[in-house]
Design the sequence.
């Protein structure tokens, strides 16, 4: 490797038929990594997207994605004629046997990649095949043609919530830009009522202590919306944390449990729901009792955790106080001082809400990822859209526009995003000219 201002460096790379070997880890066997982006003749990760951006219609757009390689994308599209859909594009290898996407023995040929799953077999949904809308969110897609496609699909909680809100909105009349912008700020928790109903049913015949009963009362009276000022939302997410630890930590260990639940594709809420449903339908009273004991312990532990973090007065509990959001500087790490950061701000939502705000189970409950850009466009009049962006148009510290979008975004409101030339000219407050060096 040629080094500017220094001597050339030699890097030894050990390679196998399954890709290069990673640097040795003490006590671990050699590990090779095969990457779809490095497969010869497998297409490009850039050129097809450029071609798609110039497509004249939906058919041309889909065809342009045929040679897309990586990263894997679920692309939503629509054209002027009304054709619309969602198409998954990218390189997915075929295998003789399922790998479960875990490290496998390199000598075992039956786990080897064969060829690429054909583009036609990758998931695709068209508006004509479905209803009046399509949702490209966190829901898994159906693979066509009997193909086996291994991928880390998410559970679909946000997609289910969007679908329910659209169903309700269309029953009440025509849906406009403002309604769609409000929908993007929704913090309803789709499965919360089921989790709470099954948990409380397991302890309904028990006499709970004062502390556990207070948390149960908050859960029973919750409207299912993870608003930043909600005491019940705080109780729900702390209870969910405590319940999973009570049920699983002894069996798998604290470190492994936290690592597993922190994975992006893991759905702690769905795991808890399935465990509770399994206990309710279990023919063995002993299995039901084990989970019932865990629910009772978790209710009490939730009160103790909330009291420790927010004080013993439940009226002062609030989800946003447990769920702060910070905007870090561009070069700031999680364990370093961040004088250029913004926040913390009390924030609502969670990983399962339309207004996504996930947190790391291993370090609850600080926001790890949020939907910082929201955009609503009527393709019949694209020059006048609605948008909200956080923290602002510029991320440069000290810039006048660094946090100018923050207030609207935190309040769940959108403002006019004009691309019509006349509106832009009329609403402009400054002009920036970029000229190449001559």
Sequence:
């Amino acid at each position: 490797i040629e080094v500017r201002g220094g001597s050339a460096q030699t890097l030894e790379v050990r390679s196998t038929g399954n890709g290069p070997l990673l640097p040795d880890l003490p006590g671990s066997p050699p590990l090779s990594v095969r990457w779809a982006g490095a497969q010869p003749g497998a297409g490009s990760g850039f050129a097809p997207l450029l071609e798609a951006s110039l497509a004249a219609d939906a058919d041309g757009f889909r065809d342009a994605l045929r040679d897309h390689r990586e990263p894997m994308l679920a692309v939503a599209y629509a054209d002027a004629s009304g054709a619309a859909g969602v198409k998954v594009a990218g390189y997915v290898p075929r295998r003789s046997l399922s790998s479960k996407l875990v490290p496998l023995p390199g000598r075992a040929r039956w786990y080897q990649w064969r060829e690429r799953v054909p583009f036609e077999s990758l998931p695709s949904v068209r508006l004509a095949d479905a209803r009046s809308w399509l949702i490209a969110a966190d829901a898994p897609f159906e693979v066509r043609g009997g193909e086996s496609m291994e991928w880390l699909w998410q559970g679909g909680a946000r997609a289910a919530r969007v679908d329910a809100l659209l169903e309700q909105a269309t029953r009440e009349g025509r849906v406009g830009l403002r309604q769609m912008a409000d929908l993007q700020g929704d913090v309803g928790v789709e499965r919360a009522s089921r989790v709470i109903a099954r948990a409380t049913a397991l302890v309904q015949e028990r006499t709970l202590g004062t502390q556990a009963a207070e948390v149960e009362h908050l859960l029973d009276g919750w409207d299912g919306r993870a608003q930043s000022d909600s005491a019940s939302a705080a109780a729900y997410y702390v209870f969910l944390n405590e319940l999973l630890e009570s049920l699983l930590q002894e069996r798998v260990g604290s470190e492994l449990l936290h690592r597993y639940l922190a994975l992006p594709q893991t759905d702690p809420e769905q795991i808890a729901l399935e465990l509770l449903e399994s206990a309710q339908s279990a023919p063995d009273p002993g299995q039901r009792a084990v989970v019932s004991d865990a629910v009772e312990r978790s209710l009490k532990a939730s009160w103790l955790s909330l009291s420790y973090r927010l004080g013993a007065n439940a009226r002062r509990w609030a989800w946003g106080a447990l769920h702060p959001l910070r905007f870090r500087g561009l070069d700031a790490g999680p364990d370093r001082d961040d004088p250029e950061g913004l926040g913390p701000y009390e924030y609502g939502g969670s990983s399962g809400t339309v207004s996504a705000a996930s947190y790391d189970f291993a370090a609850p409950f600080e926001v790890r990822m949020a939907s910082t850009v929201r955009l609503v466009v009527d393709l019949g009049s694209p020059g006048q859209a609605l948008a909200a962006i956080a923290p602002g148009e510029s991320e440069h510290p000290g810039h006048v526009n660094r946090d100018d979008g923050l207030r609207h975004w935190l309040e769940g409101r959108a403002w006019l995003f004009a691309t019509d030339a006349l509106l832009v000219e009329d609403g402009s407050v400054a002009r920036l000219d970029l000229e190449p060096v001559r």
In short: The mean pLDDT is 89.
